[in-house]
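re: the backbone from monday

yeah here it is again, tokenized this time
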């Protein structure tokens, strides 16, 4: 089968998982083309990784139908069987291009979103049960959806698990410190203000704890100021955007997310589980598909920094129990997020649509 992935966003936090899917589809014998906006680090990464990529500038993320027409010409020239769009603007423009080319369009839905930009697609692949349920509540027909988890190459991820290759020393920390790491964009929905409030409580009981904030965004200046006001700045590192995620995960003792709103299914959650990092996270939809309180980690009510601090202290106080739950989370993640399963499920959807269209 000849597959074209269309992405109209230069900033992919899930780049590695996207690449895993492309590689696995190629390994299963498919021709795979990626159409991606030129410029930005991820286009250069695609070129450097040897991906069969075609640049497509888009003047407006939602309304550039000239770009959609050019995409339809690429579909025809490459004799593509199915277009797979990622994110909302990609789905809107990609579905138009696919219709002009006379082929089906599939769209991955990676977060809670309004249905309207997806409704000209032939099939939607929500990334979690919660996203699936939200689309159903908006009136999307069940026959138009199939939940497909974003896949991950287990061998690639586990190859990076090496405690000796850790970023700890970069921040002045050693084996005596207990590192609580959070990898997420510094935006309101990720709840970093509550994590820092919790950090102040945790450090009173566990002065050996350290907090590693990985990611960037609009809230960084105010979060750094909050850490100073709380008196935790000297035990908190703001690492910014990192491309060496394995070294970051190797530096952690606990993986934390303080999200205050519904999540699709955070990429970091899957990778940290595969690294057997005990998880302490907000009890919001998406996260709870992997983290089950008392079984695969700890869940705390969102916006409740005292409950979050108590859960973090529980994990620090009982490392044996924390390790046991981390192993259970690892087994669940490995079973549900293997990219081979993801690619096979996508192929079933593609084949069904191609048969119907023909």
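seq for it, each position gets an aa:
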């Amino acid at each position: 089968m000849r597959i074209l992935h269309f992405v109209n966003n230069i900033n992919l936090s899930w780049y590695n998982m996207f690449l895993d899917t492309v590689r696995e589809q190629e390994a299963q014998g498919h021709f795979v083309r990626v159409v991606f906006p030129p410029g930005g680090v991820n286009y250069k990464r695609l070129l450097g990784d040897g991906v069969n990529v075609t640049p497509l500038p888009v003047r407006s993320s939602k309304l550039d139908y000239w770009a959609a027409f050019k995409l339809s010409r690429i579909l025809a020239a490459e004799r593509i069987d199915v277009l797979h769009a990622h994110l909302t603007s990609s789905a809107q423009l990609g579905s138009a291009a696919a219709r002009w080319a006379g082929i089906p369009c599939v769209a991955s839905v990676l977060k809670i979103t309004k249905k309207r930009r997806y409704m000209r697609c032939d099939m939607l692949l929500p990334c979690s049960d919660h996203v699936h349920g939200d689309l159903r509540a908006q009136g999307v027909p069940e026959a138009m959806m199939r939940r497909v988890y974003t896949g991950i190459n287990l061998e690639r991820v586990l190859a990076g698990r090496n405690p000796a290759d850790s970023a700890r020393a970069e921040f002045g920390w050693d084996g005596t410190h207990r590192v609580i790491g959070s990898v997420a964009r510094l935006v309101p929905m990720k709840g970093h203000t509550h994590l820092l409030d919790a950090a102040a409580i945790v450090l009173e009981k566990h002065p050996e704890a350290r907090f590693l904030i990985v990611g960037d965004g609009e809230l960084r200046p105010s979060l750094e100021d909050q850490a100073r006001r709380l008196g935790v700045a000297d035990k908190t590192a703001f690492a910014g955007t990192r491309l060496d995620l394995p070294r970051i995960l190797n530096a952690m003792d606990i993986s934390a997310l303080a999200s205050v709103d519904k999540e699709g299914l955070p990429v970091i959650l899957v990778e940290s589980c595969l690294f057997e990092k005990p998880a302490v996270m907000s009890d919001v939809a998406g996260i709870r598909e992997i983290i089950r309180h008392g079984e695969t980690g700890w869940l705390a009510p969102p916006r409740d920094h005292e409950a979050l601090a108590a859960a973090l202290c529980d994990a620090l106080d009982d490392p044996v129990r924390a390790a046991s739950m981390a192993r259970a989370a690892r087994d669940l993640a490995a079973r549900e997020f293997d990219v081979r399963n993801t690619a096979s499920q996508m192929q079933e959807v593609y084949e069904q649509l191609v048969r119907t269209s023909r």
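The first strand starts at residue 2 and ends at 7. The domain at 156-336 is CATH 3.40.50.2000 (Rossmann fold).
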